[in-house]
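[step 3/7] fold_predict: job queued, chain A
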Amino acid sequence: MSKQPLPENSVPFTDILGYDGYMQTEGGIWQRRTYYAVTDRGPFPIAGSFGYDGPQDWSVDLDGTGEKELAANVQYGGDGHRDVFVYQRRGDTIWKGVLDLSDLPNHDNWGVNSTTAEYDPKKGVFRVRYAQKGTEDFGVLETRGLGRFLFSKYKPE
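[step 4/7] structure written:
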């Protein structure tokens, strides 16, 4: 990382998505965290997370390649919807993954909050809880790896 001083209210990190840099967390009850890589091109955003309980992120090898991804549990401010993102570096490009929930068995898809998703770092699984047709019981799907994720190039907000 360059020897320039860090921006105010930032915390340095080492080897997140193969970069060194800093993260900035802002907000009160609801917080947003942005990760910035610092290279000879200067700082640029590589990942973000947000939520009411503060950002919940883990740098972990999810696909067994030896390179760590960043799993981020997020919670939206408007409707409280819980979801999970995975950030992955491919060369000099960052990709953002979201869970493909299009084929959940017996899913009663009445809107965005008919599902919740999270990464459980203790078990190393992604857990999806979802409404089911014809019952008040929720279904639960646990999955490992990145097989259920759909990736696109990361576009910072």
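[step 5/7] annotate
The longest strand covers residues 42-51.
The chain has no helices and twelve strands.
exit 0
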